């Protein structure tokens, strides 16, 4: 995965922001609702829902929140149905962004995303003008303690995965989109508890930012998009040079 290691460093820089439980719970609730809408409320027969619930429990999301999200997805609570939509945009220095949204109000979300871009050195792009710069992949994440790097690699490849990337905190398994469910099912059959199972978008040609000011602008835009209440995932093609990473390490992002 191009840029995986450097982007991991960026994620660690942002860790304090991502630790806000309100945001995490909101993302978990969206995924649970979407999974329940797509495959029903029975987690035993809905792998996506089972993974979503496991992810929610891993961050200590209250049981009543989980149950409410399931009912929201199945329509038991009434109200507008949650819909999935992807917005595309450009940030500082032409960096590309894909934002996956789960919303019950498409007009509101479209306006909010447009405002975030316009106020932060970016602009919303027309559909398709950014997406072609990314490859769609399946991604499975397991905690590092789940198994050794060699053990995970062997199991994943035997199950049909393309690549495995491991560091001190996690194993990231990459698959073709059509193989995601198959590989995940095989890993579960081997007794492994998955941390997450989802589709992801990998930039074909990462843009390396070596200017601290531009880096801060790009990271701020990423944070604002990522922290938007209806956001499920944000994908971008920017990386930070080693020199910029060193400066950000010594002077954290605000």
Structure overview:
With 254 residues, this protein is α+β, with helices and mostly antiparallel strands. It has three domains: 71 residues, Arc Repressor Mutant, subunit A (Orthogonal Bundle), CATH 1.10.10; 97 residues, YebC, transcriptional regulation domain (Alpha-Beta Plaits), CATH 3.30.70.980; 69 residues, 2-Layer Sandwich (Alpha-Beta Plaits), CATH 3.30.70.980. The chain has ten helices and ten strands. The protein has a four-stranded antiparallel sheet. Strands 5-6-4-7 form a four-stranded antiparallel sheet. Helix 1 packs parallel to helix 10, helix 3 runs antiparallel to helix 4 and helix 3 packs across helix 5. The longest helix is centred in the N-terminal third of the chain and has 19 residues. It is globular.
Helix-strand blueprint:
Layout: H1 4-13, H2 15-18, H3 21-39, H4 47-58, H5 63-74, E1 83-90, E2 96-103, H6 106-118, E3 123-124, E4 134-143, H7 149-159, E5 163-166, E6 170-175, H8 180-189, E7 196-203, E8 207-209, H9 212-227, E9 231-236, E10 238-240, H10 242-250
Parallel strand pairs: 8-10
Antiparallel strand pairs: 1-2, 1-3, 2-9, 4-6, 4-7, 5-6
Helix pairs in contact: 1-10, 3-4, 3-5
């Amino acid at each position: 995965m191009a840029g995986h290691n450097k982007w991991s460093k960026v994620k660690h820089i942002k860790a304090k922001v991502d630790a806000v439980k309100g945001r995490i719970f909101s993302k978990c609730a969206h995924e649970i609702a979407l999974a329940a809408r797509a495959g029903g409320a029975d987690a035993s027969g809905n792998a996506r829902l089972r993974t979503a619930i496991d992810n929610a429990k891993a961050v200590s999301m209250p049981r009543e929140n989980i149950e409410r999200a399931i009912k929201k997805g199945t329509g038991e609570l009434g109200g507008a149905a949650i819909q999935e939509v992807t917005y595309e945009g450009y940030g500082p220095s032409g960096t590309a962004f894909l934002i996956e949204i789960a919303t019950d109000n498409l007009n509101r979300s479209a306006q909010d995303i447009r405002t975030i871009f316009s106020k932060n050195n970016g602009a919303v792009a027309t559909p398709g003008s950014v997406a072609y710069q990314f490859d769609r992949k399946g991604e499975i994440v397991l905690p590092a303690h789940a198994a050794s790097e060699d053990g995970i690699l062997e199991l994943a490849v035997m199950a049909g995965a393309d690549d495995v990337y491991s560091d001190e905190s996690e194993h990231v398994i990459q698959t073709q989109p059509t193989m995601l469910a198959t590989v995940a099912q095989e890993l579960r059959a081997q007794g492994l508890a998955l941390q997450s199972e989802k589709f992801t978008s990998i930039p074909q040609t990462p843009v390396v930012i070596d200017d601290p000011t531009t880096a801060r602008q790009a990271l701020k835009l990423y944070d604002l998009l990522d922290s938007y209440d209806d956001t499920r995932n944000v994908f971008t093609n920017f990386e930070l040079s080693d020199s910029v990473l060193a400066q950000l390490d010594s002077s954290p992002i605000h």
